């Protein structure tokens, strides 16, 4: 070893420093060429030269390091034992240090000090390392620590540029050269002076107050292994070649107010600042200058793109020339002609300088060409620069935090020497914040202005064209729209004024429709945008942004911060739209709720609505506010509508299906932060599956004392065949191995006959035979198949079931995919098609039957007609209040954020033409009476298994109680409303008329048609007109309560992205993370607690005709509902497959969420 070390110091070192041009590149290239880029010896280990070998090491998440540089032990005169470059990747210490650096904003806090550089006096004709370094030093330290050091500190640090680079040769250089001569003291003095000064900066105090930094210091103090020289500033001596004055140090007091461990942490940051920042950036800037001076043609390339030019120069002549790593296991190789096996732990020098000139990877590697297409493959700063710049822990796990700082500082200093500083500054090509966008720029484009609208009212069309202004680079996202793509949109969506719905004294009361765009004041839109921005700051940084209390005050902003999941809103999955949706819908809309409303909170009506203005979105029309107050007042309602407008038009829509660094599970599932005891505690299980990532986002929070995302069924525990295999498997911290979910077929049986699809399952007219099995039942959605956006699977599939309810086949409407028999699909294909069916079924039910049918039709027409036709003290108005409270508020909000194009549902679902699909689903809705008729009499199903489904048994019991209550209420007022054997109450008749008018306005009047003859209709004393009204109201009342619970209880169904979601990549049996987060954010909103059927609504009877009889009626029927609830709860108790959708203690009395 002594001979080897002497050779390293007195032979290799001069070769590196005094070779051709004095360039390390020359020395390394000579080494590589001698062996044709095969390994050769350097110091105590081999060197590797090839691009693929070196790149492979740099991408390895488990790089093993040690206290080595240049294959020899490093020296404490240059680095501490726990310096970042010495820590092995993947270890807890390295991971937590990275987290601390990120949290403290290392090299990401301060801009380039352009004014300082501009005022600096330089001699451009004398370009030396020392001269360039004298400008680099204050620039780099200012960017890292926020202030420029005083001149005496910089004078002490300056020699580090000359002697610090010798530190790459480790302890042998100290033993044989630097220590005996006292020159190591100059390095130590520089390190201590820099640290002592840094500790006086405000930034250091901020850093040492950071919780992550303190946690790291507590876990890894390290100071006990630091040399004495670093605890007290030494006084070095220049007394001769072999002076031993370096052994005798004068000690000065250490800085006050900081512990030894804190000083040690700052020392390690300073060592990075000096070695990588000062020395590395000086080398970079010097080469940027000298290459241009030696070849004037390069000046234009530099001025065109300074950063790309420097990256290319660094590829050709690296500042950081090599990386030392230790072999993770024994490795056989040919070393200088001999077959040898090197032991695990042997240091290996991985040479960036030669890899960046490897002819097998680079075309014309000796040329300087910043425009080469694979420039991002350049190896520097411990990774491929495209991934270093992106700060991608997956592909560059040891990226340097100061990469962009060095690049930007070097560019500014280089420009100063080359005389192009002012031009480049004016052009915005130098300076700014220490962030780079050289390889990962998203595509940018712009739409033309909209063409003129084709119609002034009704529904017109307009067009605009997209132009790509900046194509994507590197791993940047492609533009959502193609060059020249034409987009059409509806416009002037308002009724033409000729239509008249009501006349008063000969004057037509025209509906005063207003476009939402016209009503949203600029300040409301600004609030929407500010709230969205606050959401980002709120969650990514864990505190409210300045002035955001103005926006969030009414939502309880301080309380929202408690147990925040801020650290896990990942940029790979939460784009601007998604975090805004979550912030507005999940955080403020749900977490802001402190108390769940009760029936007593429902106000007594006080006004008759006089043709309240409404908004058209697609086929739906909803009043702009509720005169009864509802859940929100008119101003709050407008704010929500304007939020919806901001979501639609203010935030870019990107599916991100084909982007390297976004919207992929592997980007987030491997992050160390999820594999912690705290995450396991809140989940109640280890972090293993995609659903754990999703549920973790909700599990921290409560809403009115109820979990923000209540999951009534744990589908994984119930039906995941490989549940135990996945959750019992050992896991390496930060390592995710995807094991596809294998679902039991019992899951589909449960969904079809006992859960979400129970109202859709039907018996086939003609059973289907295949392979000895018979398909008897089906749940179909293939008729709704429409084109999907590029990359998405097409929604729509049919499932066929046996007589005992087990799934036998899935069809896409064209091809049958059988589980068994001839042509049976593989298990993987079967799991995929089951996923397609589950997701398609859920999406159709959610959009068609929940959003459109229950919300925008049944509840909407009931609420609108009751407010416009019935006076506030009319008994029917009071009775309708319990069935319509909160409806207008929630439907108005849903219309703007769910029905409209480019908002939540449209972005989560895969439809290429969302507006057209919504219209088709609307047009397919069924007659209300016919839909609810089997609940009145399940025997008409003529199938025992269907009749015994809890949807029909429990639903029939609930429907009967609702029907009886409605009938008893009408009977109570029959004598008051009927004359001469006919319904004669003007307001009731007006209500019936307005029901059909409102439905007719939306081209859906036929959905309210009643049959000429109604079986088992009440007689009502022969009062003609009351029986049809009774049957229609019974169907509508059940529609807004029991039916709404059946089709709207989807939170558990949508929680697991491998069970069901709105969309999926074609061929994948799971949803992309971003689309699934959009889906679950919406599903969470459906889980809000609102008044249920068993509550007391008798205060609605106050002050009306027959008040006491009304109260008695309410009380009597409430007792019946409570009794039914007790009966059903007894059956449900302890049953993991319980059916809850018809239990009155679960069913809400109105559509208000």
TrEMBL record:
SUPFAM superfamilies: Cytochrome P450 (SSF48264), Lipoxigenase (SSF48484), TSP-1 type 1 repeat (SSF82895)
Pfam families, alphabetized: TSP_1 (PF00090)
Keywords tagged on the record: Signal
GO molecular function, one term: monooxygenase activity
Residues spanning the signal sequence: 1-22
InterPro entries: Cyt_P450_sf (IPR036396), LipOase_C_sf (IPR036226), TSP1_rpt (IPR000884), TSP1_rpt_sf (IPR036383)
SMART domains assigned: TSP1 (SM00209)
Keyword Cell membrane belongs to the record: no
Name recorded for this polypeptide: Lipoxygenase domain-containing protein
């Amino acid at each position: 070893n002594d001979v080897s070390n002497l050779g390293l110091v007195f032979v290799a070192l001069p070769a590196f420093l005094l070779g051709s041009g004095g360039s390390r590149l020359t020395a390394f290239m000579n080494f590589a060429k001698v062996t044709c880029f095969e390994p050769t010896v350097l110091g105590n280990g081999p060197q590797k030269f090839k691009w693929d070998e070196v790149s492979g090491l740099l991408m390895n998440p488990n790089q093993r390091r040690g206290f080595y540089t240049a294959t020899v032990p490093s020296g404490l005169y240059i680095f501490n034992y726990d310096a970042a470059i010495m820590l092995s990747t993947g270890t807890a210490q390295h991971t937590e240090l990275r987290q601390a650096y990120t949290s403290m904003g290392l090299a990401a806090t301060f801009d380039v000090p352009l004014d300082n550089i501009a005022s600096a006096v330089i001699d451009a004709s004398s370009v030396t390392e020392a001269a360039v370094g004298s400008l680099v030093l204050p620039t780099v330290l200012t960017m890292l620590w926020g202030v420029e050091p005083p001149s005496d500190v910089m004078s002490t640090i300056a020699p580090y540029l000359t002697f610090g680079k010798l530190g790459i040769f480790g302890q042998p250089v100290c033993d044989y050269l630097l220590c005996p001569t006292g020159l190591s003291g100059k390095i130590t003095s520089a390190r201590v002076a820099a640290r002592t000064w840094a500790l006086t900066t405000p930034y250091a105090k901020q850093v040492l107050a950071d919780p992550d930094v303190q946690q790291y210091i507590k876990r890894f103090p390290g100071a006990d292994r630091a040399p004495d020289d670093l605890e007290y500033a030494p006084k070095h001596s220049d007394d001769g070649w072999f002076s031993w004055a370096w052994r005798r140090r004068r000690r000065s007091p250490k800085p006050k107010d900081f512990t030894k461990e804190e000083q040690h942490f700052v020392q390690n940051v300073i060592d990075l600042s000096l070695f990588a920042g000062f020395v590395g950036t000086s080398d970079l800037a010097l080469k940027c200058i000298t290459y241009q001076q030696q070849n004037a043609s390069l000046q234009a390339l530099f001025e065109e793109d300074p950063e790309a030019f420097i990256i290319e120069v660094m590829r050709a002549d690296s500042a950081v020339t090599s990386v030392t790593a230790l072999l993770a296991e024994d490795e056989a190789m040919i070393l200088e002609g001999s077959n040898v096996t090197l032991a695990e732990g042997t240091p290996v020098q991985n040479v960036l300088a030669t890899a960046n000139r490897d002819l097998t990877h680079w075309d014309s590697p000796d040329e300087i060409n910043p425009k080469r297409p694979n420039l991002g493959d350049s190896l520097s700063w411990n990774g491929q620069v495209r991934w270093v710049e992106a700060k991608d822990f997956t592909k560059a796990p040891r990226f340097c935090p100061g990469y962009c700082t060095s690049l930007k500082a070097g560019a500014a200093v280089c420009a100063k020497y080359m005389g192009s500083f002012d031009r480049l500054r004016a052009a915005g090509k130098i300076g700014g914040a220490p962030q780079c966008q050289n390889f990962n720029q998203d595509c940018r484009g712009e739409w033309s202005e909209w063409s003129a609208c084709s119609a002034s009212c009704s529904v017109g069309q307009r067009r605009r064209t997209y132009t790509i202004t900046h194509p994507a680079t590197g791993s940047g996202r492609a533009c959502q729209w193609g060059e020249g793509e034409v987009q059409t949109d509806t416009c002037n969506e308002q009724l033409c004024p000729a239509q008249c719905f009501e006349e008063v004294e000969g004057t037509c009361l025209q509906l005063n429709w207003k476009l939402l765009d016209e009503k949203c004041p600029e300040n409301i839109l600004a609030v929407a945008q500010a709230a969205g921005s606050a959401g980002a700051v709120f969650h990514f940084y864990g505190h409210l942004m300045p002035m955001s209390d103005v926006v969030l005050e009414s939502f309880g902003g301080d309380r929202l911060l408690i147990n925040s999941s801020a650290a896990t809103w990942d940029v790979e999955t939460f784009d601007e739209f998604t975090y805004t949706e979550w912030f507005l819908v999940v955080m403020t809309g749900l977490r802001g709720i402190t108390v769940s409303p009760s029936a007593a909170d429902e106000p007594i009506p006080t006004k008759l609505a006089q043709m309240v203005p409404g908004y058209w979105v697609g086929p739906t029309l909803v009043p702009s506010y509720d005169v009864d107050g509802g859940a929100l007042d008119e101003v709050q309602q407008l704010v929500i509508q304007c939020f919806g407008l901001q979501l639609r038009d203010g935030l870019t829509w990107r599916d991100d299906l084909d982007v390297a660094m976004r919207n992929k599970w592997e980007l987030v599932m491997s992050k160390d932060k999820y594999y912690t005891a705290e995450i396991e505690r809140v989940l109640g299980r280890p972090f293993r599956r995609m659903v754990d990532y999703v549920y973790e986002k909700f599990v921290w929070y409560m809403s009115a004392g109820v979990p923000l995302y209540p999951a009534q069924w744990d589908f994984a525990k119930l039906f995941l065949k490989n549940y135990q295999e996945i959750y019992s498997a050992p896991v390496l911290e930060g390592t995710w191995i995807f094991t596809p979910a294998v679902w039991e077929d019992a899951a589909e049986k449960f969904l079809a006959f006992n859960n979400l699809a129970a109202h859709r399952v039907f018996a086939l007219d003609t059973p289907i035979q295949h392979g000895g099995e018979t398909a008897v039942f089906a749940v179909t959605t293939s008729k709704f198949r429409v084109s999907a956006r590029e990359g998405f699977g097409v929604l729509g599939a049919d499932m066929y079931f046996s007589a005992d309810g087990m799934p036998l086949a899935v069809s896409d409407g064209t091809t049958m995919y059988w589980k068994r028999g001839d042509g049976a699909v593989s298990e993987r294909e079967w799991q995929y098609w089951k996923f397609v069916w589950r997701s398609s079924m859920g999406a159709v039910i959610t959009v068609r039957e929940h959003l459109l049918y229950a919300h925008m039709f049944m509840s909407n027409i009931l609420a609108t007609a009751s407010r416009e036709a019935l006076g506030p003290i009319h008994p029917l108005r009071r009775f309708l209040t319990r069935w319509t409270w909160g409806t207008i508020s929630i439907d108005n909000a849903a219309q703007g954020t769910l029905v409209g194009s480019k908002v939540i549902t449209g972005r989560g679902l895969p439809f290429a033409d969302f507006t057209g699909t919504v219209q088709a689903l609307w047009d397919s809705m069924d007659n209300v009476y016919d839909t609810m008729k089997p609940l009145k009499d399940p025997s008409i199903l003529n199938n025992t298994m269907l009749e015994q489904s809890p949807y029909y048994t429990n639903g029939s019991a609930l429907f009967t109680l609702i029907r009886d209550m409605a009938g008893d209420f009408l009977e109570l007022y029959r004598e008051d409303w009927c004359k001469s054997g006919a319904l004669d109450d003007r307001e009731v008749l007006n209500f019936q008329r307005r029901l059909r008018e409102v439905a007719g306005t939306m081209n859906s009047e036929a959905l309210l048609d009643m049959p000429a003859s109604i079986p088992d209709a009440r007689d009502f004393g022969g009062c003609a007109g009351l029986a049809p009204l009774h049957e229609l109201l019974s169907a509508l009342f059940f529609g807004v309560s029991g039916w709404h619970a059946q089709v709207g209880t989807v939170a558990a169904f949508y929680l697991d992205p491998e069970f069901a979601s709105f969309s999926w990549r074609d061929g994948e049996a799971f949803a992309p993370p971003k689309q699934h987060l959009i889906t679950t954010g919406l599903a969470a909103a459906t889980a809000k607690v609102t008044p249920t059927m068993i509550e007391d609504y008798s205060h609605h009877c106050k002050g009306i005709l027959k008040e006491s009889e009304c109260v008695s009626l309410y009380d009597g029927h409430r007792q019946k509902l409570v009794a039914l609830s007790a009966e059903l709860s007894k059956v449900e108790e302890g049953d993991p497959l319980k059916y809850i959708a018809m239990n009155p203690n679960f069913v809400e009395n109105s559509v208000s969420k």
